[in-house]
UniProtKB/TrEMBL annotation:
Record carries keyword Oxidoreductase: yes
Residues annotated as catalytic: 131, 243
Subunit structure: Homodimer.
Known catalytic reactions: L-aspartate 4-semialdehyde + phosphate + NADP(+) = 4-phospho-L-aspartate + NADPH + H(+)
Family that this chain belongs to: Belongs to the aspartate-semialdehyde dehydrogenase family.
Record's function text: Catalyzes the NADPH-dependent formation of L-aspartate-semialdehyde (L-ASA) by the reductive dephosphorylation of L-aspartyl-4-phosphate.
Positions with a binding annotation for NADP(+): 11-14, 39-40, 161-162, 316
Protein name: Aspartate-semialdehyde dehydrogenase
Gene: asd
GO molecular-function term, one example from the UniProt record: aspartate-semialdehyde dehydrogenase activity
Domain of life: Bacteria
Length: 339
């Protein structure tokens, strides 16, 4: 016997990926519902190789009798409908920022804090972290176990797919416009993104950081360790899929490059590809469509007492969003909702 699974935001970048990954990983489903806003009702979305689902209206959907909802609409939509689904007994795995920092909602990366899933009982909601946080904490976890991380400095190079389908279209249209000498229109992004980069993701906060940077700070502490200091600079780059991060880590104890490499190689969800020769490291185009968090360029940071630096790339739509949510659903089904 399988589960009744609803995918909320089924027509978006992440929603379509969720449907794809549920099918790919043979998640035991009895029935799948594709839900979205009224304007998408009747549209068709693929479920795996050979099934097509017709999109239903989220606002009218009754979650009674449904087991799990994988939710990735806008934060406001989630604020309204995730509690409604949870109240009907359907456990929600929510990919928006709305519930992440609420103390009674667990924020989970299965390779890092799977035990936190148990906290779903309080509200019926589990939050999926931000994409840039997920890939970083997967890589930080084995290093934290090795030498106790005290401080992290991260700069991100985030693909446009993190901003949704319209953001991907904007990069495509601007690139084309430049080639045919047409007008370059910036609507979704605050500046031209084609052949450029933008050191702002999400809105500004009072202290001059952006909300995306704040998310990396507070989410890392909630998932991994509240005592880790994090400084993040988040940058949008003209790449379609996969986020990259340059990460510098300070430890309480000395950690050698060899020890770190060995721990990262043994860590679940991490692939180390680091040959120290031209091209001997993964880039976004090679990691798109992959499940792992790829680590390379592991080296000593000689500017601090116990420091290492490395390069980290992952598919932001998969491990950074849909795959992480499906992995949570798998643990939830196996350990808490067994049928
Ligand atoms: C971005 N972090 O890349 C967002 C997506 N969750 O814009």
């Amino acid at each position: 016997m399988g589960y009744k699974v609803a995918v909320i935001g089924a027509t978006g970048n992440v929603g379509r990926e969720m449907l794809q990954i549920l099918a790919e990983r043979d998640f035991p489903v009895d029935e799948v519902a594709a839900l979205a806003s009224e304007r998408s009702v009747g549209r068709e979305v693929s479920f795996g190789e050979d099934q097509v689902l017709r999109v239903k209206d989220l606002a009218k959907f009754d979650f009674t009798g449904w087991d799990i909802a994988l939710s990735s609409p806008g934060a406001k939509v989630s604020a309204q409908h995730s509690p409604r689904a949870a109240a009907a007994g359907c456990v929600v795995i929510d990919n928006t920022s709305h519930f992440r920092m609420e103390p009674d909602v667990p924020l989970v990366v299965p390779e890092v804090n799977p035990q936190a899933i148990a906290g779903y009982r309080k509200r019926g909601i589990i939050a999926n972290p931000n994409c840039s946080t997920i890939q970083m904490v997967v890589a930080l976890k084995p290093l934290h176990e090795l030498g106790q991380i005290t401080r992290v400095v991260v700069s991100t190079y985030q693909s446009v797919s993190g901003g949704g389908k319209e953001a991907m279209d904007e990069l495509f249209n601007q690139t084309r416009a430049i080639y045919v000498n047409d007008e370059v229109k910036a609507e979704k992004f605050p500046k031209q993104i084609a052949f450029n980069l933008i050191p702002q993701i999400d809105s500004f906060m009072d202290d001059g950081s952006t909300k995306e940077e704040w998310k990396m700070v507070v989410e890392t502490r909630k998932i991994l360790d509240p005592d880790i200091a994090v400084l993040a600079t988040c940058v949008r780059v003209p790449v379609f899929v996969s986020h990259s991060e340059s990460i510098s880590v300070e430890f309480a104890r000395p950690v050698s490059v060899e020890e770190a490499t060995e721990a990262l190689r043994a860590a679940p969800g991490v692939v180390v590809l680091d040959t120290r020769e031209p091209g001997g490291y993964p880039t976004p185009v090679e990691t798109t469509g992959e499940d792992a968090v790829f680590v390379s360029r592991i080296r000593k940071d000689p500017t601090v007492k116990n420091g290492l630096a490395f390069w980290c790339v992952a598919d932001n739509l998969r491990k950074g969003a849909a795959l992480n949510a499906v992995q949570i659903a798998e643990l939830l089904a196996r350990d808490y909702l067994a049928k």
